[in-house]
Design brief:
CATH architecture: Up-down Bundle
Helix content: 55-70%
Structural class: mainly alpha
Number of domains: 1
Strand content: under 5%
Oligomer: single chain
Distance between the termini: 29 Å
CATH superfamily: Phosphatidic acid phosphatase type 2/haloperoxidase
């Protein structure tokens, strides 16, 4: 246990220390080509407020609120970033160029966020706690568009891109990404449909990024054997 704790602490220090140098090393290359993902064609239009489908979604949010545990609440409130996946990657983090990896993935996430923000604006769907006063949201509950879930999108993109660097960790990374998405419903800040649609888009964005030469070349530079 001491060895594991020490390893995770060291990983956290490395990743945190990498932030400044990662920003300096970030590339101006486009990782997500313009119009690479036709987002609206991949997800359904959310149900109108007050319809049976809407009430079904809201009922799930309320039920999960009633049954959530302290552990689930803590998980749901944890910040989503590269560091959140570090415990899954474990000691393999030492085998790559950490600053370059962080710069690469953060750059991709920023491009994805810009794209999906435009999608969310199209639907402009209210959050559960904006509609129902019985919903008690956790964490940073901002009244911004709910559909689709940006957290779910980013979690999948983080996991997919990290899995390209650490393929042996793919299953664990994706499991964490899926749980992060579901945690948003437990937190009362998203409906189940937000999460499932977000995960669909997360995979679509990841597919587009992974297919591009800019990302693949960057991965070659940070993989074992090329780490500085």
């Amino acid at each position: 246990m001491k060895r594991l704790t020490g390893t995770l602490t060291a990983i956290a220090i490395i990743v945190a220390a990498a932030t400044t140098s990662a920003q300096a090393a970030s590339s101006t290359a486009t990782l997500l080509p313009e119009n690479a993902v036709e987002a609206q064609s991949k997800i359904s239009t959310p149900p109108a407020l007050g319809t049976p489908k809407f009430h079904e979604e809201m009922s799930t949010v309320l039920w999960l609120q009633e049954t959530r545990t302290p552990e689930q609440s803590e998980f749901a409130e944890t910040t989503l970033n590269v560091e959140r996946f570090a415990p899954v990657v474990g000691e393999a983090m030492f085998e790559v160029n950490g600053p370059a990896m962080k710069a690469l993935i953060d750059g991709a996430i920023n491009e994805v966020r810009t794209d999906y923000d435009a999608v969310k604006a199209v639907y402009d769907y209210p959050r559960p706690f904006e509609i129902n006063a019985a919903v008690e949201p956790l964490g940073d509950a901002r009244p911004v568009a709910s559909y689709p879930s940006g957290h779910s999108i980013r979690a999948v993109v983080y996991a997919r891109l990290l899995a390209e660097v650490f393929p042996e960790k793919t299953d664990e990374l994706m499991d964490l990404a899926n749980r992060i998405g579901h945690g948003r419903v437990i937190a009362g800040v998203h409906y189940p449909m937000d999460v499932t649609s977000g995960q669909v888009l997360g995979h679509a964005y990841a597919d587009a990024i992974l297919a591009g030469p800019a990302f693949q070349q960057a991965v070659e530079d940070i993989r074992p054997g090329n780490a500085s």
